[in-house]
Each structure stands twice: as C-alpha cells, then as structure tokens.
Design brief:
By secondary structure, this protein is α+β, with helices and mostly antiparallel strands. Helix content is about 45%, strand content about 20%. The chain is globular.
Length: about 110
Amino acid sequence: MLVTFSSKAGADILMLSQHAKPIMRIAGKVMDKDIPVRGVFTPEQLVDAISALEHAIALEQPAAPKDDDDDQARDALSLPVGLRQRAHPLLDLMRRSVQAGAPLTWEAGSAW
C-alpha cells in the first residue's frame, strides 16, 4: 500500500506503508499496527514530529558493510537503507510546511 504525503509547501512524497509506518510512529501519528487511512500534521504538531525524527536519526547506528568481498562492501547498492535516508524527503517537506505555516496531510491507499 502507498502512503501519499501532501503539503502546499512542496511536492507530494510517496512511500510504501512498510517504510512510512516506522517514520509515522516516531512522529507520533501511528499508535497501533495500521496507518490511519487519512490524517494531518498541523504546523504546530510538525515542530514536535521533526524534533522526534531528528532525535531518532541521531541515535541510529550506521550499518556495517559486509566483509565478504571488498568490492561488495564498497558498493552503495548493497548497503541497507537507514532511517536517515528513508525519512529525508519527508523531513524536508515537514520543514517546508512549518516555514510556510501549512499543514501536511497523508492518505494511505493504492495510487492506482
């Protein structure tokens, strides 16, 4: 399932729900096992959500490359995607929304 994040402050961000759920849990919007079908971050809520995401990113341990093969260890495509990379586009949209005083909404569901 896709989750679409929208704000007048920037372009839409699309994420698979399995990747959006941990980010939204950190931001305080997901409390149970499923992402709500629709929701909103007010500009005031975004300040706390940004702070929580930045704190979680700061605590994240970088993934260690495998020692199997030196070429594979240097290949960026073989490294797992961490919270920092996953959250970056959404975090940028959150910051833009705060600056513009605009809410950030999401809608979960198929884009087809």
